[in-house]
Amino acid sequence: MRPEGISYQVAPMTDADAGEVLTLQRAAYATEAQLYRDAFLPALTQSLGELRLEIMSGAGLVVRSGDGRERLLAAVRTSTHDDVLHIGRLTVAPDLQGRGLGSLLLREVEERSTETWAELFTGHLSEGNLRLYERRGYERTRTEPLHDGVTLVYLRKRLR
């Protein structure tokens, strides 16, 4: 599935992307903060320095507009451990959510991976996220309380 009506380019995430990724992350997680009534979700409190360390120690992809404006549209970060691709902080610009960019990024990181499994998590109230992941073949494996009012739902998919 290609995002409809969007001209884009997918590229590896670099340290030069950190500021824009952090801005996109905060904008994308604002709705999650409202949903969970928690303005201190880890994605909202992460500092630029913490993000830069995460980029240096892992991998990730960004999606930029291909229309010459070079707008950051979406991003995802990954790491690997014990033959598992860990997918985190999949973020899409709020005005473009539901247009296929999240699916695009999931497909890209899965295809670029050499691991056998992929794993990710989302909050228990994040129904749109859960639908997306399950549509892409992820199955719920466990839940884990983060704190009062927030339970993480872990999902896993066999890649090969």
From TrEMBL:
Residue span, N-acetyltransferase domain: 19-160
Gene3D superfamilies xrefs: 3.40.630.30
Superkingdom field: Bacteria
Listed Pfam families: Acetyltransf_10
Keywords in alphabetical order: Acyltransferase, Transferase
GO molecular function: acyltransferase activity, transferring groups other than amino-acyl groups
Protein name (database record): GNAT family N-acetyltransferase
